Amino acid sequence: MNLCAATRMDRLDALRGLAVVWMALFHLAFDLNHFGLLDTRHNFHRDALWTTQRTCIVSLFLLCAGMGQALALRGQAGVHFTPGFWRRWMQIAGCAVLVSLGSAWMFPRSWISFGVLHGMAVMLILARGVAPWRLWLWPAGALCIALPRWVQHPFFDQAFSHWVGLVTRKPITEDWVPVLPWLGVMLWGLALGQWLQQRQPAWLAAGVPGALRPLAVLGRWSLSFYMLHQPVF
């Protein structure tokens, strides 16, 4: 789930790789429980042990995605939507469609209509558009995170509108990553990436210890791994 392939940073890749490993372990536990091979005695959709982990995993992915956008936009003043961006965006959007189709086959009553890839496809376009805000990205991100707590309306409970996130009740689905509040996390990642480039470029460009190299390699193939790990499990 990365759009900065031309500007690899081992530390960012390793952080994304950590999110991939954590996600895989989470999904493995979910699958084993689903097929009755692991009795966790917990509800993956309600219990804090699992919902907190899911929040952390998605946050880490979106934070990395935002930082990746900051790196990808280096030296491209005034040019936010490059052909390379759209090529990678099409891959993410196409994979989102495949996730919907696969989940509809596995979970016809709770299929994924707007999961993490769907959310990223929308949020990446929005993040690119507001990248010039720079320091204003921090309060904008905070507003995105806080807004669903302040504003809810039944209109957004509908199947065609719950992707916004201002719902009064969560939809029944296996994965749901609405634009609000999650856009805020991506904007913070974008702001953090811009700040690091300006204030700590050496830290950002530094390599990782040999023991973490596998994580960095995995982080470079996060979208492929995401699409393949569940069918394999």
Q: How much strand?
A: under 5%
Number of helical segments with 4 or more residues: 9
Q: How would you sum up the major sheet?
A: none
Q: What oligomeric state do the depicted chains represent? A: single chain
Order of helices and strands: HHHHHHHHH
- Gyration radius (Cα, Å) is 18 Å
Note the overall shape.
Answer: globular
* Overall mean confidence score, pLDDT: 90
Percent of residues in helices comes to 55-70%
The strand count comes to: 0
Distance N terminus to C terminus? 20 Å
Protein described:
The model is unreliable at 2-6 (pLDDT under 50). The longest helix has 25 residues, at 10-34. Helix content is 64%, strand content 0%. The protein is globular and about 50 Å long. By secondary structure, it is an all-alpha fold. The two termini are 20 Å apart. 33% of the residues are buried. It has helices at residues 10-34, 48-72, 83-106, 116-130, 137-150, 179-199, 201-205, 213-220, 222-232.
List the helices and strands and how they pair.
Layout: H1 10-34, H2 48-72, H3 83-106, H4 116-130, H5 137-150, H6 179-199, H7 201-205, H8 213-220, H9 222-232
Helix pairs in contact: 1-2, 1-8, 1-9, 2-4, 2-6, 3-4, 4-6, 5-6
List keywords for this structure.
233 residues; disordered N terminus; globular; single chain; 9 helices; mainly alpha
In summary, what is this structure?
The protein is mostly helical and 233 residues long.
